[in-house]
Design brief:
The protein has 272 residues and is α/β, with parallel strands linked by helices. The chain contains 14 helices and nine strands. The protein is 51% helix and 14% strand. β2, α2 and β3 form a beta-alpha-beta unit.
């Protein structure tokens, strides 16, 4: 019989909820917490236990998983979690927060927990199917069986290395989607048939970005794209990424697009 650790999962957004459901379906005892408690209701109906606070969620946990929106949200959750951790806890940090936040988290956890940074590549469809690409930095001993329920693990090196690589990959993907949108905007301006231009781009080296720009039934919010690009541009001088960030910030300023999928922002970039 596989080891069935007691898992605390904190953060049940578009990605966190299907990931938590995978662990519950695998038979792990699961305690969940989310800032908006109502989002936990479907998981509770399936057998998860709802905690009243982050501290309550982790008190008896062998493994803690955090999947929150940004470094500020992680910091707020850590304020409550760290004093309640049992010695020997393994903390899998799966948010996209950058390496600095991971290093700070590890320092705060001290000897109470081993922090593994394991951000996930993929959207909601792959999260539901357990087909995420998981980048893992640090000592994954003891949590491989947990991560295996969520997707395929790629080791990246020491603590923080996975968080760093996730920023690199997300910046490339988000920038590629914006580039596709502007290429189609140019096609429109030049009178090139839109479907013809899209098909030609799909057959080019930008094919993956074209697929993502028109993806359906997935979700990566525009505000999260803004957050990721902002983290990247703080880490290095990236003038092209700065320009792309400006485009997404303008899209995110529209309340109708702020939480909408990246593809909706791409459509705005094409027509604005």
């Amino acid at each position: 019989m596989p080891q069935m650790d007691q898992i605390a999962f904190l953060g049940l957004g578009h990605m966190g909820a299907p990931m938590a459901r995978r662990l519950l379906a695998a038979g792990h005892p699961l305690t969940v917490w989310n800032r908006t408690a109502a989002k936990a209701a479907p998981l509770v109906a399936e057998g998860a236990v709802l905690a009243a606070s982050p501290a309550d969620a982790v008190r008896d946990a062998d493994v803690v998983i955090t999947m929150v929106a940004d470094p500020a949200a992680l910091d707020a959750v850590a304020d409550e979690i760290v004093p309640a951790l049992r010695p020997g806890t393994r903390w899998i940090e799966m948010s996209t927060v950058g390496p600095d936040a991971v290093h700070e988290l590890a320092a705060r956890a001290g000897e109470s927990a081993t922090v593994i940074d394991a951000p996930a590549m993929g959207s909601t469809d792959r999260a539901s199917a357990g087909e995420l690409g998981i980048l893992a930095g640090g000592d994954t001993a003891g949590v491989e069986h947990v991560l295996a329920h969520l997707g395929t693990v790629t080791r990246t090196g020491g603590p923080g290395s996975a968080a760093a690589l996730k920023l690199v990959l997300n910046s490339a993907v988000i920038g590629g989607v914006a580039l596709v949108a502007e290429a189609l905007r140019l096609a429109d301006a030049l009178g090139v048939d839109g479907d013809t231009a899209r098909t030609a781009l799909a057959g080019s080296p930008l094919g993956g970005a074209v697929t993502r720009a028109f993806a359906e039934d997935v979700h990566f919010g525009t505000t999260l794209a803004v957050k990721d690009l902002a983290l990247a541009t703080k880490a290095a001088e990236l003038p092209i990424t700065e320009a792309v960030l400006g485009q997404y910030r303008r899209a995110a300023a529209d309340p109708a697009l702020a939480d909408a999928d990246l593809s909706r922002a791409a459509a705005r970039i094409r027509t604005s």
